[in-house]
């Protein structure tokens, strides 16, 4: 099975598989953006080899956030290339030290393997490694810059709401905005603007992050699922916010009409499954329930402003 890398711009490549992509930004030195997954690590490594890039030039892996489907390549790549340093937010640095982080990660990483086998993307789940270490080597704060040389400079933005540790990254020379999972699940291949909003931490913070990123002068959006969206940040963020408002309003109205929460959640689960294989159906249902709860909580607090100025 051959997975080709995609050259997005002169300094940026898309790696991995499209359902769980990672990116490689190359200046004088390189940075992998996204932690990848265990089952796609070999694909990422062989894509870098096929590009003829000397791995000693790759200095960093930047995590957008610490959800298990976005960190899994790191322990394997560090074993292979011990010089690669992990970059993440202060909250991410704390979360990866959590007592159950590795245990939960290993379970979720197997799930991703199963999904990729089902999709025919890989043939088998790679064997476990003896040690999963996720310590963050470089903690980056809002406004901090990561200079890769040749004019490639990434700026860090704190964009919570999907998760408390989420960061987004903007590169001014080539005008990329890495939005990671901050705008939820969206597939640029589909005709319509269908989103599954993912305000797992907080609806209010999620909307605030979207509004803040709408003013970034980016010409394309790099997602943690499904690859690159060729759209300016303002248009994309407006679509994401509109979809979030619609999803939230629907939940609030249905709950107010006395509809059964469980029935709503399983209907939403089926909608999410129809978008593509992301996780086991019980995991999706759990996440749908989290959104229902967060919508209810926010509705009790007052009105959310869904306008971009
Ligand atoms: Fe996530």
The CATH class name of the largest domain reads: Alpha Beta
- Report the major sheet: 7 strands, mixed
> What is the tally of beta strands?
15
Helix percent reads 25-40%
| Count of discrete structural domains | 2
User: Measured on Cα atoms, how large is the radius of gyration?
Assistant: 19 Å
Ligand inventory = fe (ii) ion
Q: CATH homologous superfamily name of the largest domain?
A: Ribonuclease Z/Hydroxyacylglutathione hydrolase-like
**Integer average pLDDT:** 96
Question: So, CATH architecture of the largest domain?
Answer: 4-Layer Sandwich
Descriptive notes:
With 309 residues, the protein is of the alpha/beta class. It folds into 2 domains: 6-238, Ribonuclease Z/Hydroxyacylglutathione hydrolase-like (Metallo-beta-lactamase, Chain A, 4-Layer Sandwich); 246-301, no CATH class. It is 36% helix and 21% strand. It has helices at residues 41-50, 74-80, 90-95, 101-118, 203-213, 233-256, 261-275, 281-301; strands at 6-9, 12-17, 20-26, 30-33, 58-62, 85-88, 138-139, 145-149, 152-158, 167-171, 176-180, 185-186, 195-196, 220-223, 228-229. The strands form 3 sheets. The chain has a 7-stranded mixed beta sheet with strand order 1-2-3-4-5-6-7. Strand 10 and strand 11 (176-180) form a beta hairpin. Helix 5 (203-213) packs antiparallel against helix 6 and helix 6 (233-256) crosses helix 8 (281-301). The longest helix is centred in the C-terminal third of the chain and has 24 residues, at 233-256. The structure holds fe (ii) ion. The site of fe (ii) ion has 6 residues, from loops.
């Amino acid at each position: 099975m051959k997975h080709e890398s995609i050259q997005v711009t002169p300094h940026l490549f898309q790696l991995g598989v499209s359902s769980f992509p990672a990116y490689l930004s190359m200046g004088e030195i390189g940075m992998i953006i996204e932690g990848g997954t265990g089952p796609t690590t070999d694909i990422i490594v062989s894509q870098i080899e096929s590009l003829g890039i000397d791995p000693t030039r790759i200095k960093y892996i930047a995590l957008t956030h610490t959800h298990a489907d976005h960190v899994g390549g790191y322990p394997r790549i560090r074993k292979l290339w011990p010089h690669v340093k992990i970059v993440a937010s202060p909250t991410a640095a704390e979360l990866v030290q959590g007592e159950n982080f590795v245990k939960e990660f290993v379970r979720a990483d197997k799930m991703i393997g199963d999904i990729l086998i089902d999709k025919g993307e890989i043939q088998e789940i790679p064997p476990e490694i003896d040690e999963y270490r996720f310590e963050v080597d470089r903690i980056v704060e809002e406004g901090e810059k990561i200079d890769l040389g040749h004019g490639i400079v990434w700026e860090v933005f704190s964009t919570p709401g999907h998760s408390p540790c989420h960061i987004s990254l903007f590169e001014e020379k080539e005008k990329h905005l890495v939005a990671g999972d901050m705008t939820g699940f969206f597939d640029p291949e589909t005709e319509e603007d269908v989103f599954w909003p993912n305000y797992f931490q907080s609806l209010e913070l999620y909307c605030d992050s979207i509004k803040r990123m709408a003013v970034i002068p980016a010409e394309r959006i790099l997602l943690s699922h499904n690859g690159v969206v060729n759209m300016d940040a303002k248009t994309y963020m407006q679509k994401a916010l509109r979809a979030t408002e619609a999803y939230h309003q629907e939940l609030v109205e249905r709950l107010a009409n006395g509809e059964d929460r469980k029935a709503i959640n399983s209907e939403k689960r089926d909608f999410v499954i129809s978008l593509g294989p992301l996780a086991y159906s019980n995991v999706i249902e759990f996440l749908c329930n989290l959104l229902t709860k967060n919508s209810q909580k926010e509705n009790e607090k007052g009105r959310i402003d869904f306008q971009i100025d």
